[in-house]
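We were asked to recover a plausible sequence for a given structure. The inputs and outputs are reproduced exactly as logged, with field labels preserved.

PROBLEM: sequence recovery
POSITIONS: 310
GIVEN STRUCTURE:
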């Protein structure tokens, strides 16, 4: 099993392991015995289990009466290191730490279900915008490809993307299946295409209103987005977006998929830290969590838009 979220330790490999590690600590406040679930790529998780076991082996003997438990804790962790868990067990632990495994699990095509829905939705929405007037304008097509890249990263190959956008869209796409943030990103993308020539015709506006309804938003949301996308707003928006990106931990022009992965990873890091934190640190972590969630909202409310794009 592999998830479309990268490992919180190395930030490079996808998450593929969830192991329970036991630990004993002496001479500190709080419970000297702790079990926690470690989530990450296989090498990192096993390294963490080894480090925790070594720590117990060094200091666990001096806790009273916990010294008695030390051999049991070490034995448990050694078994954890030696045995490969069945996928069902890994899945159960991933769910326990709050990861939506069903949506994040990467399938044979290298995409998670959430990414596939977003990618299909993006192709549908962008192809609809490109084919709206019955002619495929190369400028619109090029712009749609650029936006698709921003939304789905390299999840779909460039050749595949060009081929799919050049065809009229499949009319059966269920846009409601895309998650709420993804739908917002798609509506924004359609608005960006409509704005490409600097103004929005009445026909385009009507089409965007219809699309907004398909995406489960009020037509007014499309109007607000168009207002936001006006070139005069671009500077403030870019600044807000750059600030949000810094909090989430990605570059200002990162794709939606990259941003989501970084966001999930940051949530995971905070979640993991809370388990072992003292009261003062808990407070800091709560502040950090609020900042992260606000940044995630800002990221979606402040769409990337290059006013000079051709
Ligand atoms: Zn790793």
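RECOVERED SEQUENCE:
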């Amino acid at each position: 099993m592999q998830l479309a979220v990268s490992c919180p330790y190395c930030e490079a490999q996808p998450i593929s392991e969830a192991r329970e590690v036991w630990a004993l600590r002496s001479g500190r406040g709080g419970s000297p015995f702790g079990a926690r679930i470690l989530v990450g790529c296989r090498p990192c998780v096993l390294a963490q289990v080894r480090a925790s076991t070594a720590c117990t082996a060094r200091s666990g003997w001096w806790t009273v009466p916990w010294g008695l438990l030390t051999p049991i804790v070490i034995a448990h962790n050694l078994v954890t290191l030696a045995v490969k868990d069945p996928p069902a067990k890994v899945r159960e632990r991933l769910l326990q730490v709050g990861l939506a495994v069903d949506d994040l699990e990467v399938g044979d095509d290298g995409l998670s279900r959430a990414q596939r829905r977003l990618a299909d939705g993006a192709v549908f929405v962008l192809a609809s915008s490109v084919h709206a007037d019955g002619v495929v304008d190369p400028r619109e097509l090029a712009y749609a490809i650029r936006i698709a890249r921003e939304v789905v990263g390299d999840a779909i190959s460039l050749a595949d993307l060009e081929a799919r956008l050049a065809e009229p869209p499949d009319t059966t796409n269920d846009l409601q299946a895309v998650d709420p943030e993804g739908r917002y990103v798609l509506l924004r993308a359609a608005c960006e295409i409509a704005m490409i020539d600097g103004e929005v015709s009445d026909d385009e506006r009507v089409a965007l209103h219809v699309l907004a309804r398909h995406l489960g938003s009020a037509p007014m949301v499309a109007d607000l987005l168009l207002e936001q996308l006006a070139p005069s707003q671009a500077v403030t928006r870019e600044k807000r977006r750059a600030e949000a990106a810094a909090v989430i931990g990605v570059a200002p022009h990162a794709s939606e998929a990259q941003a989501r992965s970084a966001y999930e990873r940051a949530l995971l890091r905070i979640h993991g830290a809370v388990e072992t934190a003292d009261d003062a640190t808990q407070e800091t972590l709560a502040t950090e969590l609020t900042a992260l969630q606000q940044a995630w909202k800002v990221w979606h409310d402040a769409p990337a838009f290059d006013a000079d794009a051709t």
